[in-house]
Every structure is written in C-alpha cells, then in structure tokens.
C-alpha cells in the first residue's frame, strides 16, 4: 500500500521489508484554529506563538471545578491562527508531500478534530478557497502535465500493481472503453456549476521542482469512505435501479505481494488534468451525500480517504514511448484523509443503531489512538508490543505508513468556542503525543532509464527537421493529401449516356458537361500531382542529403571507433598504473604500519625507562631522608643522654656532698668528743674538705633507697687513745651482744664494707641502705 514498489524485481513473498535507511522523522503535527462562529462568544484558545497554542477553561467550567483547570499549552510543528489562508497552509503542510510523491515517495495526510472544527474545510475547502486536496491535485498536474503518458498506457492490475502497455494496445483499450461508457473527456476549460467553481486562483498555481522529464507519468485517483468500519468505493459505477436501489457493497482490505494494504477491487480512475480529477472527486462526494441521506447516516461519523497514485516510468531510448518494462514502473501514492469527528458519542445524542454505528466509528478513532500510543511506547521504551492495526479498517489501511516508510502529517483542527473545550483538550493531548511517533524516512529511488534529456533532444530534433523542410520547399503541411482526396471525391460520375431517341437533347449536353468537369478536375489533379512530385523530389533530395549525411556520420563513427580504441588503450595503461600505484600504496602502508609498531615500542620502552628512573630517584631521596632522620634521632638521643648523665652526675655530686657534709659533721662531733676527753693529747687536724673529694656514684636501689658506689678508697688512720671512750661506747653492741667497735669504728672498715656490697650486685629487696652500711654478718 505504501511502498513505492518496482514490480517484477520483488520476489513473490519477500520477508517483511525493512526500510533500507534507518533515518526516522516524527509524525508532523500541525494545528489550525478556525475563526469563532457568529453566535459563539466565548473563546477558549489563544495562539501564543507559531508553534504554541494555549487552552483555557471557560468560566463556567472553572467555577464548577473550583478553578482546578488552568491554562494548558500545547506545542506543534506549526500552529496556524485564524488568519491563515488555504494557500499558506498548503505551502507548509501538503506541498512537501506532493514533491515527495513526484519523487516516488509516499505520503499520508490526515485531518483530525471535533465536528465543526474545520477538517473538511482544511482538506477540501470551498469554492475560491480550495483546500489541501484540490491544491495537491493542481500542483501535481502543473508539474507533470507535459510529460503525461497517453491514457491506458499505464494500467492498474487488480493486485495493487501497475502494468505498462504499448500505445497501440492503449489506443484499442481506449476505443473499447469509450464505446462502452461515456468516459469524461478532458475538459478544456475550467467550467462547471458553482459547486465545481474554481478552487484555486491561477496566480496561486505552483509546481514541483526537479521533475524527471525523461519519465512518463500518469495519475490515478480512488475515493473511499469508511463508515461503521465498512469500506465503500465512492467511484464505483453501479447501474442505478430507481425501483429497488441496491445498498452499496462494502469492500475488503488485501495485502499485496509487497505486504502493502489496499482496497480490493477499488475503482482507480486515470485522470489527465486538475479539472478531470476534481470532477471525479465531486462525483464521489455526490455519491457519498446521496448514500448518507438515503441511509440516514451522519456524515461527520465517516472517514473519507482520497488516494492519489502517481505511476511513472522511464522513456525508451528514442524518448518517444514509455519503456515497456514493468519492473521499471514506479508507483507512489498520497493518501488524503478527512477523519470522522473525534468527539465522544454522548455529544451527538445518537440512539439505537446510529449509536452502535457511532460507537464503531469512535472505535476506529480509539484504535487509531491506541496504535499511536503503542507505537510511541515501543519506540520510546524499546518494547515490542503488538500494534493493533487490524482492530479497525482505518488503522489497517494506514499500517504500512507507520511500519514501513513514508511521510505522515496530521492537521489538528480546533474550534475556539468554549463549548468544545473538553473535547478540544482531548484532541490536543492526542495530537501532542502523536508527534512523538517516528516513521522511517522514505529512501530516494531515482528512476534508472537511459541517459537523461531524451525527451528534449527528441523534441529539438523534430523541430529542427520541420524548420529545414520549410526552408527548402515551402510548408510541407498535411494539406496535399486532403486536397487530392477532395478532388477525388468531387470527381463527377458519368451520367447515363444511352441516347433515348433523335429528339434527345438532354443526354449529350449532360455528358459533355460532365466530361468537361472531369477534364477540369483531371487538370487540377495533374497540377496537384506535379506539386506532389515536387515534394517527392524534394524528399529525394533530402534523402540523398540524408544519405551523404549518413555517410559522413559513418565516417565519423569509424573515427570515433579509432578514438575509442585509443581511449581504451590509454584506459588500460591507466589501469595498469593504477594497479601499480595501489601496490606501492599497499607497500607504503605496510611499511608505515611497521614503523608505527616500532615507534610504539620505542615510546613504550622510553616510558618504562623514565618511570624506572623516577622510581630510582624517589628511592634515593627516600634513603637520604631516612639517613638524615636517623642522624637527627641519634644526635637527639646522644644529647639527651649527655644531658641526662650530666644532670644525674650533678645530682649525685650534690647528694654526695650533702652526705659527706653530714659525715663530716659527725666526724667533727666525734672529734670534738675525742678532743674533749684528751685535751692535752692533741689530734692532728685533718682538713674536712678532704672528705668531699671522695668520689662515688649514687644508684637507686630496688627498695626505693639509694646506694653509693665508691670509686676510690682513702684510709683514715687513727689510734685509739682512750679506753674511757671505749667504755662509754660499750653500749653500742650488736644484737648478739658482741661489741661493734672492732668492726665499725674506723672509716676504712666501713668503706670497704660498702664497696663489697656494691660489688655483689645481687642486692636483695631486704637490703636497706640509709647512708650507713648495715652490719656485716659474721
Ligand atoms: P468539520 O469537517 O471538522 O466538521 P467543517 O470543515 O465542515 O468542519 O467546518 C465547519 C464550518 O466552519 C464550515 O462552515 C466551514 O466553512 C467553517 N470553517 C472551518 N474552518 C474555517 C476557517 N479556517 N476559516 C473559515 N471558515 C471555516
Ligand atoms: Mg467534515
């Protein structure tokens, strides 16, 4: 249905076709607001910009819903305000689709909206205000008119395909059809009754660019209506029976060999001009109107689909006829759809069967919405849900546009009146969502005929020939044969020449007259003949001219052949050199690659080297730092210990000094006692200072006391002068009753005891030292 197919090249049952390009375009959604009606006062829309429209709830509704509805804005590809003309709309919306059609691409354009929103006005228009449909037709014919094929050269088969037949067959076909029915002749002027009045003013006519002039074209139109999910052919010619009018027969949808949907047995009328196409369209319209009245249908509940098919095929090598090759025929189509009103059933107060029908029609719009929703979801979320195209005829017919490729556009029509607010809201939501669906962009399919420009060259050649003939022998028009014919016809028959009697004076004069006439005619004929002879001679001269020209051409051809050979040789040489250069390039390539590999290696090795050097550096500096830290620690410790030692020595010195002082004092006291007892016996004085000089070290003992280690021994000798003193001191005995004098009275003994105790390092916990060594055990 939708794909521009080349019959014959496609296998019978090809796999579901995938568009060969993966470029996609969103469905183009345009919005058009119609002006308010005269009786409608409140307006519920506002065009904000050329892409945005704003909807605001009417006052009544606001009050009802506690103002919960506020303004809502909707954006579209373009928004057309009430002042937009039909032409402006066409330029933006449909013109690109017509361009596409002419370039073998398919398009689908539909209008959507509430009843009365301007769908039909937009699609069809009114006299003087032609809508998208008549304008599209006009543009098509403006573009391809000079290149149209003769009628019946293209011939639709019954399977949605297109055949091509030669001109003779086409002519025979044409004669046959004309004798059967009264096929409308192409009107020569724009005429018709007011209904068919000019839809488009001539200054608005437009044309597609880049039309392939070396193709031949034919336009076919079909017009169908879908009502209550049944398809009716609006162009079907049925003999009208006034007594028992037959209800229209519905049609079915079929899939062609390319998996495109089409209406089986649908009439396809070949049209050769805009006017003829209009006429066919109006015929369909009329039929639709009659059926609707007869069957009491509501026309706003039917969908109408106008299909424009464009067949094109390349010309043959002479540029005269269509190439007789079915596989070269291209068919593209543009589908123009005026959908049923989108409002819900309740609004129309339909009842009974009408309600059921309305339900069905609603159903098809519902299906359309569902299909769009599923498509959108599949595309946006990457899901693969089944799109329910088959649920309604409309969507089933459009299936290929969404599944295959083509351009899809929708014009959403809105009526600004407040009454429509709620329905318009739904329309807007659907329309905005539709824009999120993407359709595969049709690929370019150039027609592959012969070298371009045949039609023009052919035409130019014919003109040139005529001109030359005129120059040489006056106008060679088609008159001569006609004159001769006329003369032959006016050749008077001989009257009866039997003389009835001697008194017959009628027959002879009549005969004479006739013979004279004949003679005259003969003379004229001779003249004509001579003239023709001249022409023949002229032709002969032309012939010999042509002959010599031909010889010349032959000669030139020979030369051309030689040149061709030369060119061929040079081409071979070029080929050889190219091969060689390719080989060298290949080698260079390999060398380049090798170099790259080596360079890569070099780089990586250098990198490694650098990183190793860096590591080394780091380790060295780390080592240096450790060294200096250790040195610092050592010096610190040394200093600390030196200080500590000094402090301790000083403390010891002080302590020892104190002890010595105490001892000194005691000794002094002792001395005093001694001198007291023996005044005359003077003792030599010993300087007390000497005792200070006794060097020693003080240690802390485990018990918490202190011990002195003497490092030097000085012996103080003294004779015992008095026994009295001994007596006095006899009270100083040990626990065993042994007197202590012998052991403790002299300093030497005491010191040696202290020394001994120090040397035995194992000082028990019970060992007490209070400045005086304990008594040694026996
Ligand atoms: P629909 O097909 O949506 O039911 P119609 O196209 O029949 O609506 O429009 C209803 C009426 O509004 C018609 O009389 C039509 O002429 C008028 N109308 C619609 N759109 C416009 C417009 N853009 N400018 C002027 N009149 C319009
Ligand atoms: Mg309508």
UniProtKB/TrEMBL annotation:
Region of interest called Disordered, as start-end residue ranges on this chain: 1-27, 674-778
Keywords: ATP-binding, Coiled coil, Cytoplasm, Cytoskeleton, Microtubule, Motor protein, Nucleotide-binding
UniProt: ATP binding residues: 113-120
Cellular compartment(s): Cytoplasm, Cytoskeleton
Presence of the UniProt keyword Cytoplasm in the record: yes
A GO CC annotation given for this chain: kinesin complex
UniProt xrefs under InterPro entries: Kif23_Arf-bd, Kif23_Arf-bd_sf, Kinesin-like_fam, Kinesin_motor_CS, Kinesin_motor_dom, Kinesin_motor_dom_sf, P-loop_NTPase
Keyword Coiled coil attributed: yes
Stored Gene3D superfamilies: Kinesin motor domain, Kinesin-like protein Kif23, Arf6-interacting domain
Single GO MF descriptor: ATP binding
Major site of localization recorded for this protein: cytoplasm
CDD domains given in the database record: KISc_KIF23_like (cd01368)
Bias-annotated ranges (Basic residues): 1-16
Annotated ranges, domain Kinesin motor: 26-437
Biological process, per Gene Ontology: microtubule-based movement; mitotic spindle midzone assembly; system development
Ranges in a coiled coil: 560-629
Domain of life: Eukaryota
Pfam family, one: Kinesin
Signal sequence region: none
Family stated for the protein in its record: Belongs to the TRAFAC class myosin-kinesin ATPase superfamily. Kinesin family.
Name under which the protein is recorded: Kinesin-like protein
Organism: Cyprinus carpio
């Amino acid at each position: 249905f939708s794909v521009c197919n080349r019959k014959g090249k496609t296998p019978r049952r090809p796999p579901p076709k995938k568009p060969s390009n993966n470029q996609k375009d969103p469905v183009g959604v345009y919005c058009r607001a119609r002006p308010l009606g005269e009786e409608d006062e409140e307006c519920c829309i506002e065009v904000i910009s050329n892409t945005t429209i704003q909807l605001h709830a009417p006052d009544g509704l606001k009050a009802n819903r506690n103002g919960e509805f506020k303004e809502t804005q909707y954006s579209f590809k373009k928004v057309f305000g009430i002042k937009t003309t039909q032409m402006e709309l066409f330029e933006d919306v449909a013109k690109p689709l017509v361009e596409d059609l002419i370039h073998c691409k398919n398009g689908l354009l539909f209008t959507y909206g509430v009843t009365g929103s301007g769908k039909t006005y937009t699609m069809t228009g009114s006299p003087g205000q032609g809508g998208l449909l008549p304008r599209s037709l006009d543009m098509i014919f403006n573009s391809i008119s000079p290149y149209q094929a003769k009628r019946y050269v293209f011939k639709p088969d019954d399977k949605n395909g297109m055949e091509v037949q030669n001109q003779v067959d086409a002519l025979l076909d044409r004669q046959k059809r004309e004798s059967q029915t009264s096929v409308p002749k192409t009107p020569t002027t724009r005429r018709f009754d007011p209904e068919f009045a000019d839809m488009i003013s001539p200054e608005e006519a437009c044309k597609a660019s880049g039309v392939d002039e070396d193709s031949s074209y034919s336009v076919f139109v079909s017009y169908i209506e879908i009502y209550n999910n049944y398809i009716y052919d609006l162009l079907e010619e049925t003999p009208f029976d006034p007594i028992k009018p037959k209800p229209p027969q519905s049609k079915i949808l079929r899939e062609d060999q390319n998996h495109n949907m089409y209406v089986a047995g649908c009439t396809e009328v070949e049209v050769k001009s805009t006017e003829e196409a209009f006429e066919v369209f109006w015929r369909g319209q009329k039929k639709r109107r009659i059926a609707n009245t007869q069957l009491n249908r509501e026309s706003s509940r039917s969908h109408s689909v106008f299909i424009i098919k464009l067949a094109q095929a390349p010309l043959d090598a002479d540029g005269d006829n269509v190439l007789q090759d079915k596989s070269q025929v291209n068919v593209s189509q543009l589908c123009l759809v005026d959908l049923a009103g989108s409002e819900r059933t309740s609004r129309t107060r339909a009842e009974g069967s009408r309600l059921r029908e309305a339900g069905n029609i609603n159903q098809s719009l519902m299906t359309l919405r569902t299909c769009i929703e599923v498509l959108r979801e599949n595309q946006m979320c990457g899901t693969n849900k089944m799109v329910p195209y088959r649920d309604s005829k409309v969507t089933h017919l459009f299936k290929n546009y969404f599944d295959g490729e083509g351009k899809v556009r929708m014009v959403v029509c809105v009526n600004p009146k407040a009454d429509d607010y709620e329905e318009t809201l739904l329309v807007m939501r659907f329309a905005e969502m539709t824009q999120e669906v993407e359709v595969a962009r049709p690929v370019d399919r150039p027609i592959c005929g012969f070298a371009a420009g045949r039609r023009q060259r052919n035409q130019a050649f014919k003109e040139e020939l005529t001109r030359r003939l005129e120059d040489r022998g006056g106008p060679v028009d088609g008159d001569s044969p006609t004159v001769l014919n006329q003369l032959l016809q006016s050749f008077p028959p001989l009257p009866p020449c039997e003389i009835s009697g001697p008194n017959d004076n009628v027959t002879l004069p009549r005969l004479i007259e006739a013979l004279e006439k004949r003679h005259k005619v003969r003379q004229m004929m001779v003249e004509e003949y001579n003239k023709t002879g001249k022409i023949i001679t002229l032709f002969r001269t032309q012939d010999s001219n042509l002959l010599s020209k031909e010889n010349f051409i032959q000669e030139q051809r020979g030369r051309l052949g030689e040149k061709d050979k030369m060119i061929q040789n040079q081409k071979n040489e070029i080929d050889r050199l190219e091969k060689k250069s390719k080989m060298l390039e290949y080698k260079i390539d390999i060398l380049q690659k090798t170099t790259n590999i080596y360079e890569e290696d070099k780089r990586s090795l250098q990198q490694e080297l650098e990183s190793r050097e860096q590591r080394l550096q780091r380790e060295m500096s780390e080592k240096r730092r450790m060294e200096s830290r250790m040195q610092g620690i050592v010096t610190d410790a040394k200093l600390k210990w030196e200080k500590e030692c000094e402090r301790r020595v000083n403390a010891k010195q002080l302590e020892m000094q104190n002890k010595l002082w105490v001892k000194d004092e005691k000794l002094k006291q002792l001395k005093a006692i001694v001198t007291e007892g023996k005044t005359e016996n003077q003792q030599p004085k010993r300087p007390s200072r000497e005792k200070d000089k006794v060097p020693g070290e003080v240690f802390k003992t485990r018990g918490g006391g202190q011990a002195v280690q003497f490092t030097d021994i000085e012996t103080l000798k003294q004779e015992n002068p008095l026994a009295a003193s001994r007596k006095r001191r006899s009270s100083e005995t040990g626990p065993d009753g042994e007197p202590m004098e012998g052991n403790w009275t002299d300093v030497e003994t005491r010191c040696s005891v202290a020394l001994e105790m120090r040397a035995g390092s194992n000082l028990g916990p019970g060992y007490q030292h209070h400045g005086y060594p304990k008594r040694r055990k026996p």
